[in-house]
Amino acid sequence: MAAVLEVEVGGPGEREAEEVDLSHLSPEERWRVEHALMHAKHHGHEAMHAEMVLILIATLVVAQLLLVQWKQRHPRSYNMVTLFQMWVVPLYFTIKLYWWRFLVIWVLFSAVTAFVTFKATRKPLVQTTPRLVYKWFLLIYKMSYATGIVGYMAVMFTLFGLNLLFRIKPEDAMDFGISLLFYGLYYGVLERDFAEMCADYMASTIGFYSASGMPTKHLSDSVCAVCGQQIFVDVNEEGIIENTYRLSCNHVFHEFCIRGWCIVGKKQTCPYCKEKVDLKRMFSNPWERPHVMYGQLLDWLRYLVAWQPVIIGLVQGINYILGLE
């Protein structure tokens, strides 16, 4: 089938449609022709484009202020709406663009996460549930971290031309790297949001933590406030035997539990007294600190994935109402 492009020629008020045959051109040449025709079509619209840029900047500023106020005043509803958008918005584009591989992974992740979330929100809470929850989300966290690193390295290798050593086309190598980056960052953000929600539910159910107010139980020195299990057990007793960690407030926890609370559950306070946790002291090993920085990066990307499409859609709606194209 011949590739035909319909263009408008003539000045304002006297435009006529003219067909241009592009079938004899290579894909690169065809892209250049289409790009040049697009510039010709928008020639003379500089004032309109400037107005559209101003609308975009104003909408971004106002939206950012509103989101910050919403997050400060009603953090629970903000987090729930953001999590829902993070979960649904990519699904819409996946179905629309026929990204079946992503859809399969999304379904598997959603199924297991739904089961883990269901377990975390049950009352009474099964003793093994907190560790099951943190193990699952810690696994996804590490997988997303590794996937993002590999994707970033693939992109950098392509930019430096190292893909040619393996006889891989630049576009294929770049697509591979960007895909891995997207998978790692997206599931990293989604995992942390679900983990935070589950951590709140479990800690509130155990009774040693309350997001607002005083805990419903008094914390004993021999109990971990994150999982509710005994910290030290006798030889003949059933319990968890592992390393412990004492915070600056002198509360003691299982090392796995408090690390899951801080890294996976996005908490930076003591699960009982809410005193600020010194993450630099907790993660003294320099190889562990990138996990903290990676978590901060995911917090920033949450806004980009969840709210940026909404803001762009709002800008397009304003432009449509004002007759700007």
From TrEMBL:
| Membrane topology label | Multi-pass membrane protein
Protein's name according to its UniProt entry: Ring finger protein 175
Q: Which organism is it from?
A: Gallus gallus
Sorted alphabetically, the keyword list is: Membrane, Metal-binding, Transmembrane, Transmembrane helix, Zinc, Zinc-finger
CDD domains for the chain: RING-H2_RNF121-like
Q: Does the keyword Acetylation apply?
A: no
The UniProt record lists the keyword Repeat: no
Can you say where in the cell this protein is located? Membrane
Domain of life, per UniProt, equals: Eukaryota
Instruction: Show the GO MF annotations.
Output: zinc ion binding
Provide GO CC annotations from the record: membrane
